[in-house]
Amino acid sequence: MRALSNSDMLQLWERGQTLHPIDQGLFALALSDPGSSLESTLDAVADLSLGARNRALAELRNLNFGPRINGRVACPRCSENLEFELDCMDLISGSGDTVASVEIEGNSYRLPTSRDVALAVRQQDLDAASRTLVERCALTDSTRDISDEQIDRIGEQMAAADPLAEPRLSFQCALCNYAWDELLDLASFLWAEVDARVRRLLVEVHTLASAYGWSESQILALSAHRRALYLEIVRA
């Protein structure tokens, strides 16, 4: 894995405008792998377990933006805004190792991947989505008649086996004392930061191209320090 270049960021941002958030994260990971073709790498990252994918997203985020994540969340009860800060590398360092499959109630299940989630979210309700996920992950052909209660237990044990699949943060509202857990969507955080950086880069490209007549590729090839100095000169 390598940090994304400015050109990579622009490619990710442009293509990602029409992608589902799941695919935005996968495309970012594929761009960070210089050793294979983009399409083959996309296939490989789509087959990672959710925990392994999130671990890779945290590592990519650290390479490009550092480990600190700053965010804001609204209290579900009173709508008070709470700010938070965390270290994404601390998050993944405490997640433990991921297993390849789990044995649950006499059946074997592999851990869910992004492909499985992409199909599950198309279902009409949460129960149908959970059943789709379990059926796709079953390695033995004995899941057709399982009950909703069994599906819930299977989901809980899958989550326990892959704790980084759905990383959750615990909050308590300082205003009303309500306590709750919130899912940390690493792909969405990464995308928001890519979007902010690209918009800033495009403003810089416009400013320098207007002043010097340079092409976009020439401007992006400048180091951040040189680009900042040229911008300072132009704006002075």
What would you call the structural class?
A: alpha+beta
Poorly predicted parts:
none
- The main sheet orders its strands as 1-2
Query: What is the makeup of the main sheet?
Result: 2 strands, antiparallel
Count helical runs: 11
**Distance between the ends:** 39 Å
Which term fits the overall shape?
globular
Number of distinct beta strands: 6
What is the string of SSEs from the N terminus onward? Answer: HHHHEEHEEHHHEEHHH
Strand content: 5-15%
Mean pLDDT: 90
C-alpha-based Rg, rounded = 21 Å
Helix content: 55-70%
Write the layout of secondary structure elements.
Layout: H1 6-16, H2 21-31, H3 38-46, H4 50-65, E1 68-74, E2 81-87, H5 88-93, E3 101-104, E4 107-110, H6 114-120, H7 126-137, H8 148-161, E5 168-172, E6 179-183, H9 186-212, H10 216-221, H11 224-235
Antiparallel strand pairs: 1-2, 3-4, 5-6
Helix pairs in contact: 1-2, 1-9, 2-3, 2-4, 2-9, 4-9, 6-7, 7-8, 9-11
Tell me what the structure shows.
The chain is α+β, with helices and mostly antiparallel strands and 236 residues long. Among the domains are: 1-47 and 185-236; 101-161, no CATH class. 56% of the residues lie in helices and 14% in strands. It has helices at residues 6-16, 21-31, 38-46, 50-65, 88-93, 114-120, 126-137, 148-161, 186-212, 216-221, 224-235; strands at residues 68-74, 81-87, 101-104, 107-110, 168-172, 179-183. Strands 1-2 form a two-stranded antiparallel ribbon. β3 (101-104) and β4 form a beta hairpin. The chain is globular. 23% of the residues are buried.
